[in-house]
Amino acid sequence: MKINILKTALFLLYSMLASEGQCQSPNDALMMKAKQACILADYNYTSFNRYWEGSLNRENQTIARVMRSTVLPMAAIGISDRLNFFIGLPHISTSSSNPNGGKFKEVSGFQDLSLSLKYNWLNKTIGSSELLGLATFGFSTPASNYLSDYMPYSLGLGAPELTYRVIMQYKLKNGLYVRGAGSYLWRGYTKIEREYYYNNGSYYTPWMDVPNAINVEGVVGKWLWNNSLQIEANLLSSQSLSGDDIRAYNAPVPTNKVNMNRIGIFAHYFFPKLKGLGLIAYHQGVISGRNTAQANTTGMGITYYFNYLKSSQVNEN
Length: 317
Hints:
There is one protein chain. By secondary structure, this protein is mainly β. It contains two helices and 20 strands. Strands 1-4-5-8-9-10-11-16-17-18-19-20 form a twelve-stranded antiparallel beta barrel. Strands 2-3 form a two-stranded antiparallel sheet. The protein is globular.
């Protein structure tokens, strides 16, 4: 029984949304100009000692606190002023404060390679304010042969994913802005190392159908100090469109229905005298959910903007 509680608790962390480094990213309203790029080096640390088994909030009695460290290098590239390309590959390490409680080996390695395109389809001035509309299309796939059903230390869900996102932002002249985004996440199948699993019925196959999901995000932010500091407060809600609950004292599976509501704060500072260099910091916490961890994430990173083609090269082309 104790081992099953351990497996349940640690799995839930990986069912949450991955925390993207918040440089110029697929889910914000910033756009790189043509022939411009931004590189992000991000580190975040997540931990929890409580989780939801269905709607029941439980404590990690066997393993105490679960910990997960993520290093994310990411690049944003301006193909044109209206079209940007993104690539990222996180490296993840998992552990617990009582690893002997579950008798499992901890895991580290590369998770999923992500590729995205973001298009600015609306840029309208309304008096002294600005209205932006953007759309992103993303694809991710496992970058290593990790085991998605190796609970509690699996690096991820092990399934390909397509993301469709629409973003709207309204910004005032004084730098205050509000942003809303809606996303549909299509997820494929993941292969496990057993020939049977239960998901509201018996399935005699190693292929699990990972539930699709819908995400909705709201953001309030402001630019300060002559646009050298950006601050935000955000709320994210994620809802699976299918799946089952974790059964009592049983290990979870990637087919579980994972819902969560998360709040966070974010800051990005650009050094006025060091052109292109910036620092980011953020904190996020899950406040409610179903089949997910009551986790807190703290992260920081370095960003660097630069022109990847000189003006003479651009003119020649």
